[in-house]
């Protein structure tokens, strides 16, 4: 089922997600709905707060980046088919160079800005079967994970921008809160009912 994506200004996007257990109600259905919602909106990641759930769950599928001219052949191979579910994730290390990339967010349609992040991360999490994992990622995969991880910490990519950049996009953010954004997917806006 395709779920509405919560837009900038919704309070759930600012909550730190709570850890969940294996018996979380309808967990597999929630994960399936999140994947369907993400694909419908042409995203590469989606976090539970973006569909109104303040829990530590996010999904990633970087396959669309594999066709980009901006990635090396090596990185395209890594990106193609990289699809994972992260539950109760904790980034335990960020390292390497800090590099910029033009990021967007399904909760903040029509806004894209350069965000600077570490090139390599180590993350602990459990998968959809609650198997514990510790893995290291770098490049665009690490970036997508960091972006979605921010969501379960109540952080948006706009929080990484300078005060000047935030002022420059202020009107666009206000328009999203007022429901004036018109993405090609269902959204729930802060000051309106589901559109």
TrEMBL record:
Keywords: Hydrolase, Iron, Metal-binding, Protein biosynthesis
Catalytic activity: N-terminal N-formyl-L-methionyl-[peptide] + H2O = N-terminal L-methionyl-[peptide] + formate
Name assigned to this protein: Peptide deformylase
Any Pfam family hit: Pep_deformylase
GO molecular function (one): peptide deformylase activity
Co-factor remark: Binds 1 Fe(2+) ion.
Family: Belongs to the polypeptide deformylase family.
InterPro entries in the record: Peptide_deformylase, Peptide_deformylase_sf
EC number: 3.5.1.88
Keyword Protein biosynthesis listed: yes
Cofactor: Fe(2+)
Highest taxon of the lineage: Bacteria
Matching HAMAP family: Pep_deformylase
